Amino acid sequence: MAKAIPRARSRRNIRIGSHRNVRILRRNVRRMPKGVIHVQSSFNNTIVTITDIQGRVISWSSAGTCKFKNRRGGTPFAAQTAATDAIRIVDIQRAEVMIKGPGLGRDAALRAIRRSGILLTFVRDITPMPHNGCRPPKKKRV
């Protein structure tokens, strides 16, 4: 019996890597001149979201979706992997970076974004800081 001839793939549907025997395909590569990269880093996870200027989400990734669970999700390597995974789908020339949160993955995610070749217009820390804090609990009555 003759072997089946593989069909030619379109340029938009090319294989760009594999992770644990799962094929990752670049389906709809979004090309845009400018975007905003939001990095939210907590002690347990790092979420990287790429939006356009209006705020519509183009791509996102987190340490949890990159198979880092429990405490390993808050590590710098997990943040770096999440950032490269989110950037892989989008083709951006310039970006603004907004970093939020106290986690360990802040700097690692920023380093991964810098290494990807995207020209950064500015990097802003938007971590919410309390002005006066929460209301204290009422005094105990004995």
From TrEMBL:
| Membrane-spanning intervals of the chain | none
One Pfam match, given by its short name, reads: Ribosomal_S11
GO MF annotation list: structural constituent of ribosome
What keywords are annotated for this sequence in UniProt? Plastid, Ribonucleoprotein, Ribosomal protein
Xref: SUPFAM superfamilies: Translational machinery components
Q: Could you tell me which NCBIfam families the record lists for this protein?
A: PRK05309.1
Instruction: Give the protein family.
Output: Belongs to the universal ribosomal protein uS11 family.
**Entries under PANTHER family matching the protein:** 40S RIBOSOMAL PROTEIN S14/30S RIBOSOMAL PROTEIN S11
Q: What is this protein called?
A: Ribosomal protein S11
Q: Which organism is it from?
A: Orobanche gracilis
This chain is encoded by the gene named: rps11
